[in-house]
Amino acid sequence: MPLTRVSLRRGKPAAYRKAILDSLYRAMRETFDVPEGDRFMTVSEHDDDNFAYGADYLGIRRSGDLVIIQITVSNTRPVTQKQALYRRIAELLTESPGLRAEDVFINLVEVLPENWSFGNGEAQYVR
Description:
By secondary structure, this protein is of the alpha/beta class. The protein contains 2 helices and 4 strands.
């Protein structure tokens, strides 16, 4: 159950934002064992004054097209699977909507399975 939040500068067209979400979902389906229909994603657009980043942090040259992706998941996957997810996200976002790999920033947040409620006030993953 990934919960995905995407932050980017304001001004990109709806088709661009949709392509980001579609590519992220595809990468998660392909590499992260995400089932069909398990799609919970938001996009937040920010004015320049509310979008700050290290343009050269760790020697990676980022542009104004930087996209910050935060994915919250249950802590059930090995490091190799996480690395595969990061690579696939960068590959797919390069294809569509045409981002540079340097402009794909990913933060994976892991939580315990009991920290999810998918509705009805229930913790569906608690057995």
